């Protein structure tokens, strides 16, 4: 199976859950289906979902919750 690195579509702050204290959308080892939300990127109080375009297994995150990201920066690895 091939591992694909998914990149940030826009710059901003990456969040792994919808709000503090709630479970992460996805964690390492979770199955990911097309259309699943993996995280959110916030820019000026606007939240853009990071949605899976392929199905597979989330292998690892390259960033931590609340890290600043740049467009094109690796977010997570997906094994398809």
From TrEMBL:
Lipoyl-binding domain segment(s): 3-79
This protein's name: Biotin carboxyl carrier protein of acetyl-CoA carboxylase
One Pfam family, short name: Biotin_lipoyl
CDD domains in the cross-refs: biotinyl_domain (cd06850)
InterPro entries (UniProt xref): AcCoA_biotinCC, Biotin_BS, Biotin_lipoyl, Single_hybrid_motif
Its job: This protein is a component of the acetyl coenzyme A carboxylase complex; first, biotin carboxylase catalyzes the carboxylation of the carrier protein and then the transcarboxylase transfers the carboxyl group to form malonyl-CoA.
Keywords: Biotin, Fatty acid biosynthesis, Fatty acid metabolism, Lipid biosynthesis, Lipid metabolism
Pathway(s) per entry: Lipid metabolism; fatty acid biosynthesis
Xref: NCBIfam families: PRK07051.1 (NF005457)
Recorded superkingdom: Bacteria
Source organism of the structure: Labrys wisconsinensis
């Amino acid at each position: 199976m091939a591992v694909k690195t998914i990149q940030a579509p826009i710059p901003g702050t990456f969040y792994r859950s919808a709000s503090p204290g709630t479970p992460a959308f996805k964690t390492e080892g979770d199955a990911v289906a097309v259309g699943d939300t993996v995280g959110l990127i916030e820019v000026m109080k606007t939240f853009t979902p990071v949605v899976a375009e392929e199905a597979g297994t989330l292998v690892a995150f390259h960033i931590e919750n609340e890290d600043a990201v740049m467009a094109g920066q690796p977010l997570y690895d997906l094994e398809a």
